[in-house]
Design brief:
By secondary structure, the protein is an alpha+beta fold. 31% of the residues lie in helices and 25% in strands. It has helices at residues 34-53, 92-103, 131-150, and strands spanning 4-7, 20-22, 30-32, 67-76, 79-87, 121-127, 159-161, 165-168. A hairpin with a 7-residue loop joins strand 2 (20-22) and strand 3 (30-32). The N and C termini lie close together (9 Å). The model is unreliable at 1-33 (pLDDT under 50).
Length: 169
């Protein structure tokens, strides 16, 4: 019996923000790296999202579909707002479950200050029934994220989440 592989994965947070130095009189400089703070924030939220994604249960006699869905949102008062599907998976059920998982996130801290004042977050979620399907979808995600990062538009500064993976079955 094949094990069902359900994986949520994403690109690494790449913000290109340079560290800033704050000096106070004769004290040594304090290094503040917004990129590291944002990366830690993304890791924490990714873990929370992973817990929510693990709650997805297909209806009896159905299987979790192979798919890659991208959900975008902003954070206000510790909650996701303006949650929307940025890239559809091709399966409406999976898209709805991904949106619901993001909407269930709560008590998030504010996004740390970033040099470009980024506020949009993107959750890249992959579900796959086997290793081959996962590899194909993961390769597709890498290509999509590389193109996003190479762009000069606002998509380049989106904060990407990196939920983990799980096996079910």
């Amino acid at each position: 019996m094949k094990r069902l592989l359900a994986t949520a994965t994403a690109a690494i947070v790449l913000l290109g923000s340079a560290p800033t130095i704050a000096k106070q009189d004769k004290n040594p400089p304090i290094l503040v790296d917004a990129g590291n703070l944002t990366a830690q924030w993304a890791q924490d939220v990714s873990q929370d999202l992973d817990r929510e994604l693990m709650k997805i249960r297909p209806a009896p006699r159905e299987i979790l579909p192979n798919g890659l869905v991208q959900i975008r949102f902003e954070v206000a008062d510790g909650h996701p707002v303006n949650v929307r599907v940025h890239r559809q998976s091709g399966d409406r059920w999976l898209d709805r479950q991904a949106v619901r998982s993001v909407e269930r996130l709560n008590n998030m801290s504010d996004i740390p200050y970033t040099a470009d004042n980024t506020r949009t977050v993107q959750a890249n979620i992959i579900t796959a029934r086997d290793e081959d399907a996962f590899r194909d979808l993961h390769d597709e995600l890498i290509a999509v994220e590389e193109a996003r990062m190479a762009s000069s538009g606002p998509d380049r500064t989106v904060i990407a989440l990196n939920p983990g993976s799980r096996r079910a079955g």
